[in-house]
């Protein structure tokens, strides 16, 4: 039964990387929902032996304050992953709306949106995010706003290009001839045809957002102690190089989340792109 269900899936979703990405993502989503049930200790409690190496008593060891690393990693997922998802949704909404308006209406709307986007692109992403976060003050909320500032232009540029490619297609022009207003035509005829590539970009960006937020926390511009956030935990580990488990395990958590969503994004791109799907099938037949 299990294999028959797998055979019904599109070929792109049966590839090993796709299955791996789906399983790892499902694991972390379960952790986000059930961390209080899975964590063996309070992530903020400081009542355990300090700097205990990984073992039977504490699977991932304890940190310099006597806190259980496993519990902190599990609870850290409830901070890093939801904030990354929220950030991607906000970037998609802001960049998608602005890019759609720029591509559909053109003229001064296009010039204004694209010049602002070019201004953001002129600065290195991490540096600009650091500047914005430092200006607003160190906190998770301000870190999300900082990453949002540097993330929306990519969605705006992609959406603009897609909208410009289909705004003069026959079905769009037909709707306008039938009396559709520009906003209704944009909402009904244009946007549904650009959601696929934007969904792929958003899936890939979840890993990037997780990495950026963790990077800001690592630099002291995001989560503040004692919050169990992965980036700040890695930063604490750099102060104890001989106690490798303090920074390695939250770093591995970041790595697995980034890879999992990258695998899902690549698979989603192949599944939504018929040309790529045919190429995959042809390669499999050639190898066989």
Largest sheet data:
none
For the record, the CATH architecture stands as: Orthogonal Bundle
> Can you give the helix content as a percent range?
over 70%
CATH homologous group name = MetI-like
Find the count of extended strands (DSSP E, 2+ residues).
0
Order of helices and strands: HHHHHHHHHHHH
Q: In one word, what is the shape? A: elongated
Structure, explained:
This protein starts with a helix and ends with a helix. Residues 276-288 have low confidence and may be disordered. The chain has a single domain (14-278), classed as MetI-like (MetI-like fold). It is 74% helix and 0% strand. The chain is built from 12 helices and no strands. The longest helix has 37 residues, at 69-105. Helix 4 (107-121) crosses helix 6 (140-166) and helix 11 (245-272) crosses helix 12. It has 288 residues and is an all-alpha fold.
Q: Which characteristics define this entry?
A:
288 residues; mainly alpha; MetI-like fold; 74% helix; elongated; disordered C terminus
Write a brief caption for the model.
74% of the residues lie in helices and 0% in strands.
Topology:
Layout (H helix, E strand, L loop, with lengths): L1 H7 L7 H23 L30 H37 L1 H15 L3 H12 L3 H27 L3 H8 L4 H9 L4 H24 L11 H8 L7 H28 L1 H14 L1
Helix pairs in contact: 2-3, 2-11, 3-4, 3-6, 3-9, 3-11, 4-6, 5-6, 6-9, 7-8, 9-10, 9-11, 10-11, 11-12
